[in-house]
Design goal:
The chain is of the alpha/beta class and about 300 residues long. It contains 15 helices and 5 strands. It has a single domain, classed as Rossmann fold, CATH 3.40.50. Helix 3 packs antiparallel against helix 4 and helix 6 packs across helix 9.
Length: about 300
């Protein structure tokens, strides 16, 4: 399954209702669970595929149940009860198909507001945060045309509803901003979340990398991630990952797609919107300076 959501399941599956607590790992379980956090369109699906290795680790891509949990948690009046539900859900997702496999969860980026809860509930967990540099991110939004622009507005609206956007603008000012400004504002809000996570949990538990650094240094990045997640991968295994389908096929469609293909796709789309991307990126840098958000995250993976 590309993502763990109903749209990727056959329609004729039998549905079963069960109690979460009956199947979740106990809260004191020592089974290793780690995270890949991201802000969208930044090779996070690629990374999760890379760490889906039989008998070593299992990658879970954007479980929709965590998106439901985010909406539930931020709307809940009883935060302790909501936190208990999240603990159950993490215990449910943490169960590996093979007991020897480390579980690596990549939540949807709209779930990042819960990342602090995840790290607190699972004190042995570690996270890699990956993001695309802002101009690259904006280019991804622009070349996807109306689909990308709607996605950016929906993500921003979700973050705003959760109280996770604080850039010094009121709703009327945001309403008058362009699609790419809203995309940039959502990106900045995610950077602020990541910045707070690093400050709270430190470099021992959280490392960061951007998509361009990953693609330029895949061997080094996978080696460092293996060490962070305590997977003890050897050089041969790392080579298999870098030369395998994760880095050489499209993460969402499975078709052949290497770094050169990504570069060609990106440049063909960005060239049409270069002026707008440049202006919005400059605007976002000034907003970041005003509110104290790091454009480049600390605690680098490499």
């Amino acid at each position: 399954m590309t993502f763990i959501s109903d749209e990727y399941l056959p329609d004729n599956l039998e549905r079963t209702i069960f109690n979460r607590q009956d199947v979740a790992l106990p809260s004191d379980s020592d089974h290793p669970v780690h995270f890949i956090l991201h802000s969208g369109f930044c090779c996070s699906t690629l990374l999760t595929r890379a760490f889906d290795m039989e008998n070593i680790s299992m990658g879970l891509k954007e479980p929709v149940i965590l998106q439901d949990a985010a909406g539930y948690y931020f709307a809940a009046t009883d935060k302790q009860k909501a936190s208990d539900v999240i603990r159950n859900l993490l215990g449910l997702l943490a169960r590996p198909f093979n007991p020897s496999e480390t579980t690596i969860i990549k939540p949807s980026c709209i779930v990042n507001g819960l990342a602090e809860q995840f790290m607190q509930l699972l004190p042995k967990s570690r996270s890699v945060i990956i993001h695309a540099p802002l101009p690259v991110f904006l280019g991804s939004i622009a070349r996807k045309q109306i689909t990308g622009r709607l996605w950016a507005r929906e993500q921003f609206a979700g973050l705003r509803k959760m109280g996770l956007v604080d850039l010094g603008f009121d709703d009327d000012q945001h309403f008058r901003q362009t699609d790419l400004q809203i995309a940039a504002a959502g990106w900045l809000a995610q950077q602020a979340i990541f910045q707070k996570l690093i400050q709270r949990f430190g470099a021992d538990r959280i490392k960061t990398i951007d998509s361009e650094t990953l693609l330029a240094n895949p061997n080094q990045a996978i080696t460092q991630m293996s060490q962070l997640y305590q997977l003890k991968l050897g050089d041969h295994q790392i080579g298999q990952i870098v030369d395998g389908p994760a880095f050489n096929s499209h993460s969402k469609h499975g078709t052949e797609f290497d770094r050169q293909g990504r570069e060609a796709e990106r440049s063909s789309g960005e060239s049409l919107h270069a002026d707008e991307i440049g202006k919005v990126a400059f605007w976002a840098e000034k907003v970041a300076e005003a509110v104290g958000i790091d454009m480049s995250l600390k605690s680098p993976l490499i």
